[in-house]
Amino acid sequence: MNVFRLTGDIAHLLAIILLLMKIWKTRSCAGVSGKSQMMFALVFTTRYLDLITNFISLYNTTMKMIFIASSYGTLYLMFLKFRATYDSNHDTFRMEFLVVPVAGLSFLVNHDFSPLEILWTFSIYLESVAILPQLFMISKTGEAETITSHYLFALGSYRALYILNWVYRFYFEGFFDLIAVVAGCVQTVLYCDFFYLYITKVWKGKKLTLPA
Amino acid sequence: EICSMPKDEL
């Protein structure tokens, strides 16, 4: 464990808490992409299958359970409890355009052709593009609530911090996982446009609006 | 070298 990975995991946990807070306090999931949240739940489900079989540490097991529980909790809030506030008209990104190629790629490019490894690879590839429906939705509505922009900033920062963690582990532990690094870089690059808007607007107290 | 260590990362 190193400081980059720890802060990355905390940023990830913060993002999930911010989203749950936003939905619970505003009693609305307006501006949040249900499709991205469905893909995040799929990411955690396919990545943490070893939760039962492979104990690594109490921290690892606890965080995995929190991530799985909160992702399904978010789906419950969005599609059941506050379903009336779900903005399906603007959440129109075709998930199959992401899930199918990612599934195909995880069969072609992986470290080991075993079910658990292919599912892990699938979850890594899927996570790198899972935010696209959310970013697409913001581009369609042209704006995002401030707390939603904080959620996205924390979520984007988590994988950026993981890149620093992989640099650290490469030099100090000789650990290098090409699949995780490439997918992590793609994932972080997808946030660049949002990071620019967030830093130039939200940090100046303005609302996050996209140039028309 | 590429090594897929046990998945100790989240």
Describe what you observe in this structure:
Chain A: It comes from Capitella teleta. Chain A: It is a multi-pass membrane protein. Chain A: Pfam families: ER_lumen_recept. Chain A: It is found in: Endoplasmic reticulum membrane. Chain A: This is ER lumen protein-retaining receptor. The complex is a heterodimer of chains A (212) and B (10). With 212 residues, chain A is mostly helical. Chain A has one domain (3-209). Chain A has helices spanning 3-26, 34-47, 58-81, 96-108, 115-129, 132-141, 146-173, 178-190, 192-201, and strands spanning 143-144, 208-209. In chain A, helix 2 packs antiparallel against helix 3 (58-81), helix 5 packs parallel to helix 8 (178-190) and helix 7 runs antiparallel to helix 8. The radius of gyration of chain A is 17 Å and the shape is globular. Chain A starts with a helix and ends with a strand. In chain A, 35% of the residues are buried. The model of chain A has no long low-confidence stretch (mean pLDDT 96). Chain B is mostly loops. Helices cover 0% and strands 0% of the residues of chain B. Chain B is elongated. The N and C termini of chain B lie far apart (21 Å). The mean pLDDT of chain B is 68. Chain A binds chain B through residues 5, 9, 12, 47, 50, 54, 56-57, 60, 63-64, 67, 111-112, 117, 120, 162, 165, 174-178, 180, and chain B through 1-10.
Attribute tags:
heterodimer; A: mainly alpha; two-stranded antiparallel ribbon; 2 strands; 71% helix; 2% strand; B: little secondary structure; 0% helix; 0% strand; transmembrane (chain A); receptor (chain A); protein transport (chain A); ER lumen protein-retaining receptor (chain A)
Short description:
The complex is a heterodimer of chains A (212) and B (10). Chain A has 212 residues and is an all-alpha fold.
Report the major sheet of chain B. none
Main sheet characteristics of chain A: 2 strands, antiparallel
Instruction: Compute the average pLDDT of chain B.
Output: 68
Regarding quaternary structure, how should these chains be classified?
heterodimer
Percent of residues in helices of chain B: under 10%
Number of helices of chain A: 9
Main interface: chain pair and counts: A-B, 24 and 10 residues
| Head-to-tail CA distance between termini of chain B | 21 Å
Low-confidence stretches of chain B: none
H and E order of chain A: HHHHHHEHHHE
Low-confidence stretches of chain A: none
* Cα Rg of chain B: 7 Å
- Give the DSSP E fraction of chain B (strand runs of 2 or more residues): under 5%
The percentage of residues in β strands of chain A lies in under 5%
Number of strands of chain B: 0
Summarize the amount of helix of chain A as a percent range: over 70%
Which structural class matches the secondary elements of chain A? mainly alpha
**Helix count, DSSP H or I runs of 4 or more residues of chain B:** 0
Keywords (chain A): Endoplasmic reticulum, ER-Golgi transport, Membrane, Protein transport, Receptor, Transmembrane, Transmembrane helix, Transport
Organism (chain A): Capitella teleta
Main location (chain A): endoplasmic reticulum
Family (chain A): Belongs to the ERD2 family.
